[in-house]
């Protein structure tokens, strides 16, 4: 029973995931593969596409340099296709910018943004945030043209906390000097993992000679291996996640930060963040249904026969086009240039001929 | 039962329709239960008369160059009125997400296509449904819409969410309002072009993430019927891939009826997919075979074009089928072998259908030259000026016909319209109608529409010079050295047909021949797209700020430092300290009173 109590100790009711790949260009194939591996694991463990915001800065699967189109592989010899057949990318290409990322996190999106591009979390949501790309001490590079600093990220999380947009947050980053990105967090209930410490580089795992690029980064490769063993009912906790990829395998030293997190990491299940576990109460009472519903007849008035005969349009009515009247242009008040020109003309005229000629005009 | 046992519920995709496929024979009996499960509100049409129907078909056409062209068409037709006062809430075959889009934005017609690759007309002939590379969207709104631009902006955002594409990049800088092209393809009387909007994104990438939601809009999804063949690893490993969606009102003559057509055209290359062997089968093309028709479909057919193979001397088609159909498509009479998937006998003993075409003899004779063909390229040198050339070929030996050319050029290529020339056969050819809307920087693109009469057997060349603009440094994309795309030109034409076209639009015809409505028997309407252009704009070197800062700081440090030193440094003479021997000698000399050593 203690185990059951522990199982129900997390206060979350729904799970969200924001997975971001920030690098562009073909040689950064591994960053897209990283993000898609985490996407695959998260989907496999139960989080639906409607609760995942996937941001990929470039298209590797259908890139013309890809010898096997519509695939992104994570193992050498093309063992595991992490792209799959059922993938929904919410932000792609040029849409992956620092501004859009921060807007997704804080929820301050323009009103016409569709649901699939929004993070509709509430105060009972556990959110997994995964970032990968090229980074440095205190910043992460987006698409080789802009960067996000650790201060901005910490402030965004604080905004999320004050707006009650998360219950608990797990932040994983796989970049060079990744630990610098979580140094500045100050909001409660955040647990962070990084693939390398400040001053260290995260290294890539293995190149594939057929594709010609490195397929994955080391940290995410071992993270994927670890996650492949997790299934929705497993009880592995965060302490095992901290042990993923020791220095002997990763060459860099993975780091983690748990001081802001209220619960003990040993009692936090992996599926609290990576999976979407529904808790179901089974009841043995019976419920009486009401009488079956009666089909109502269609009482709407039947539309009368259309009096005008509807026909298909002529696709290229040549005669009509040639004799088309020009479109009515909206009247605009005269532009500044025209007004200035007329003022100049009038001034010159009255200077030359004198003001007494006005009465001849008006 | 263990209370602590948890039940894991599968995620429910939000875009899937809630129609589970019952078998056709038991449909009527299960209808009542089925309706109870899916009923949303009290008013729904009585279930006994099915008001919507679904048809699917696949056309396989071997091309002259050894490649093979497969075209899927799925049509859902529904007798309903989205624009009535009461909201439609009971959806069966028609996808709910699209129905809500139509009613919310008062859409009269919607055409959207996503294409990867360029259709090579000279090698492959004419496609059934043309589409330009990238994403293309054109919409006719109802005349009740007051603010068309606002509705357009919101519609593009909603569609970008449905199809996982960056359609939200469609804004006023790439939207145009054509004045004569893109007349509605559905029924209607009024054509006020103010309600039409057209935009094209030539840079848009098509991949599995666009195919996934597109497949989910089909009534059977990708689980039954022809859609099981759509596997992304094979579909994107092709020379041409285009998926499109067309919604329009069609004529049922008693009431309005809405038609949703989803089409997927793909051309498989002989060498990359076919491994060089001239033998094509469903398994080779799609790595799947057909096992059943979609239970919700009223008709499910596979057509194979055997016009070039009347006695079976060119290629062998197996399994043999007795059904043969004739159709007039693209101005030509073609013969097709038909496989009816709703008939269980088609699947034979193995319960799977794998259509196989094996070539016996090498291809002989020339392919019939397509009557209309367009090309476009950029001429010139340097990064300041250039010239756009559009070539339109009329390959008919004696008939002249008119074409309508629509060009949308982004604002950063400033066209000099006074240099516009249209020449045919070396002489000037004055267009009978020109509509030009100049661009405004960062607000709207150039729009040029011309109606040109093409003389028979000629090449018409349209040239216009342009100048490249320098963008503000924040307006460059993250990869500016790739270049900037200019969308394809659209050439709409009424082409004379070889065989009399069928103008009776209400008759049941195969889907691929009934897309463009026919008004006359002697001509048929065709639309072709030219290549998109890729131009380089003068791009600054973005690493320069760093370099400039380093250089400037060095220069300032060296220059200012030297000047400061010169002005403030004073020189003092200082005695150098002497060696030990000398010091001792000097002490002795001082004692003696003799001049010291230096």
UniProtKB/TrEMBL annotation, chain A:
Family indicated by similarity: Belongs to the peptidase C13 family.
Molecular function GO terms recorded: GPI-anchor transamidase activity
GO cellular component: a single term: GPI-anchor transamidase complex
Protein name, per record: GPI-anchor transamidase
Lineage, opening ranks: Eukaryota, Metazoa, Chordata, Craniata, Vertebrata
Pathway(s) it belongs to: Glycolipid biosynthesis; glycosylphosphatidylinositol-anchor biosynthesis
Membrane-spanning segments: 336-354
UniProt subunit comment: Heteropentamer. Part of the GPI-anchor transamidase complex, consisting of PIGK, PIGT, PIGS, PIGU and GAA1. Interacts with GPAA1. Interacts with PIGT; this interaction, via a disulfide link, stabilizes the expression of GAA1 and PIGK and links them to PIGS.
Active site: 134, 176
Annotated keywords: GPI-anchor biosynthesis, Membrane, Signal, Transmembrane, Transmembrane helix
Gene Ontology terms describing biological process: attachment of GPI anchor to protein; GPI anchor biosynthetic process; proteolysis
UniProtKB/TrEMBL annotation, chain B:
One GO location term (cellular component): GPI-anchor transamidase complex
Superkingdom, taxonomy of origin: Eukaryota
InterPro entries the UniProt entry points to: PIG-T
GO biological process: attachment of GPI anchor to protein
Name of this chain's protein: Phosphatidylinositol glycan anchor biosynthesis, class T
Organism of this sequence: Esox lucius (Northern pike)
Taxon lineage: Eukaryota, Metazoa, Chordata, Craniata, Vertebrata
């Amino acid at each position: 029973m203690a185990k059951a109590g522990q199982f129900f100790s997390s206060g979350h009711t729904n799970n969200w995931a924001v997975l971001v790949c920030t690098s562009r260009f073909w040689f950064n194939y591994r960053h897209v593969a990283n993000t898609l591996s985490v996407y695959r694991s998260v989907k496999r463990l139960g989080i639906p596409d409607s609760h995942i915001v996937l941001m990929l800065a470039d298209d590797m699967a259908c890139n013309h340099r890809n010898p096997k189109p519509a695939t992104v592989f994570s193992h050498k010899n093309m063992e595991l296709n992490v792209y799959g057949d059922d993938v929904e990318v919410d932000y792609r290409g040029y849409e992956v910018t620092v501004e859009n990322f921060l807007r997704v996190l804080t929820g301050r999106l323009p009103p016409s943004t569709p649901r699939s591009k929004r993070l509709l979390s509430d105060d009972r949501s556990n959110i997994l945030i995964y970032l990968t790309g090229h980074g440095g001490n205190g910043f992460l590079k987006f698409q080789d043209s802009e960067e996000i600093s650790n201060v901005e990220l910490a402030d965004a999380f604080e905004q999320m906390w004050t707006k009650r947009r998360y219950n608990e947050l797990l932040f994983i980053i796989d970049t060079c000097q990744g630990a610098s990105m979580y140094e500045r967090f100050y909001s409660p209930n955040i647990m962070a993992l990084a693939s390398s410490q400040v001053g260290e580089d995260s290294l890539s795992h293995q190149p594939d000679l057929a594709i010609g690029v490195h397929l994955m980064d080391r940290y995410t490769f071992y993270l994927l291996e670890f996650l492949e063993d997790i299934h929705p009912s497993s009880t592995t906790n965060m302490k095992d996640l901290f042990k993923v990829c020791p220095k002997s395998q990763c060459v860099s030293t993975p780091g983690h930060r748990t001081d802001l997190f209220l619960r003990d990491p040993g009692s936090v299940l992996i599926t609290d963040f990576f999976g979407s576990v529904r808790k179901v109460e089974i009841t043995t009472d019976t419920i009486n249904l009401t009488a079956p519903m009666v089909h109502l007849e269609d009482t709407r008035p039947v539309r009368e026969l259309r009096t005008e005969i509807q026909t298909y349009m002529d696709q290229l009515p040549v005669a009509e086009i040639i004799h088309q009247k020009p479109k009515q242009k909206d009247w605009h008040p005269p532009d500044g240039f025209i007004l200035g020109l007329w003022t100049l003309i009038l001034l010159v005229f009255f200077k030359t001929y004198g003001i007494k000629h006005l009465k001849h005009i008006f | 039962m263990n209370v602590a046992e948890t039940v894991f519920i599968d995620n429910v995709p939000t875009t899937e329709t809630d129609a589970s496929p019952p078998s056709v024979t038991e449909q009527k009996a299960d209808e009542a239960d089925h309706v109870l499960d899916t009923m949303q509100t009290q008013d729904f049409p009585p279930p006994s008369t099915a008001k919507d129907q679904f048809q699917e078909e696949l056309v396989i056409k071997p091309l002259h160059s050894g490649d093979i062209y497969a075209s899927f068409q799925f049509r859902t037709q529904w007798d309903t009125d989205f624009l009535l006062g009461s909201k439609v809430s009971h959806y069966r075959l028609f996808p709910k997400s699209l129905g809500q889009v139509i009613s919310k934005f008062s859409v009269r017609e919607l055409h959207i296509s996503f294409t990867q690759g360029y259709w090579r007309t000279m090698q492959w002939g004419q496609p059934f449904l043309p589409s330009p590379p990238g994403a293309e969207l054109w919409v006719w709104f109802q005349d009740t819409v007051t603010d068309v631009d606002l509705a357009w902006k919101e519609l593009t955002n909603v569609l970008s969410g449905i199809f996982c594409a960056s359609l939200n990049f469609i804004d006023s800088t790439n939207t145009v309002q054509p004045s004569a092209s893109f007349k509605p393809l559905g029924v209607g009387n009024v054509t006020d072009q103010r309600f039409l909007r057209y935009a094209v994104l030539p840079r848009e990438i098509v991949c599995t993430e666009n195919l996934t939601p597109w497949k989910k809009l089909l009534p059977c999804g990708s689980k039954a019927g022809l859609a099981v063949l759509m596997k992304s690893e094979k579909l994107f490993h092709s020379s041409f891939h285009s998926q499109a969606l067309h919604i329009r009102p069609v004529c049922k003559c008693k009431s309005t009826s809405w038609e949703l057509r989803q089409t997927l055209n793909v051309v498989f290359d002989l060498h990359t997919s076919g491994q060089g062997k001239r033998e094509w089968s469903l398994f080779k093309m799609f790595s799947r075979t057909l096992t059943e028709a979609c239970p919700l479909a009223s008709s499910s057919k596979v057509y194979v074009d055997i016009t070039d193979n009347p006695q079976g001397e060119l290629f062998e088609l197996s399994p043999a089928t007795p059904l043969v159909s004739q159709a007039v498509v693209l101005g030509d009479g073609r013969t097709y072998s038909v496989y009816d998937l709703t008939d269980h006998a088609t699947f034979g003993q193995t319960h799977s259908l794998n259509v196989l075409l094996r070539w016996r003899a090498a291809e002989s004779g020339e392919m019939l030259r397509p009557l209309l063909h367009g090309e476009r390229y950029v001429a010139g040198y340097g990064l300041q000026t250039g010239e756009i050339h559009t070539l339109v070929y009329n390959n008919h030996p004696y008939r002249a016909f008119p074409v309508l050319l629509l060009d949308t050029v982004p604002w950063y290529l400033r066209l000099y319209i006074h240099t516009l020339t249209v020449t045919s056969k070396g002489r000037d050819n004055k267009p009978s109608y020109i509509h030009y809307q100049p661009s405004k920087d960062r607000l709207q693109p150039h729009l040029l529409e011309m109606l040109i009469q093409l003389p028979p057997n000629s090449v018409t060349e349209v040239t216009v010079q342009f100048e490249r603009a320098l963008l503000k440094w924040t307006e460059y994309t993250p990869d500016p050295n790739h270049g900037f795309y200019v969308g394809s030109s659209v050439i709409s034409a009424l082409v004379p047909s070889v065989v009399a076209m069928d103008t009776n639009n209400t008759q049941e015809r195969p889907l691929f021949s009934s897309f463009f409505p026919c008004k006359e028997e002697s001509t048929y309407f065709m639309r072709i797209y030219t290549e998109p252009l890729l131009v380089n704009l003068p791009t600054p070197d973005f690493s320069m700020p760093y370099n400039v800062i380093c250089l400037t700081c060095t220069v300032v440090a060296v220059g200012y430092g030297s000047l400061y030193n010169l002005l403030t440094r004073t020189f003092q003479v200082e005695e150098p300290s002497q060696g030990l021997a000398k010091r001792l000698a000097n002490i002795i000399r001082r004692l003696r009173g003799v001049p010291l050593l230096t």
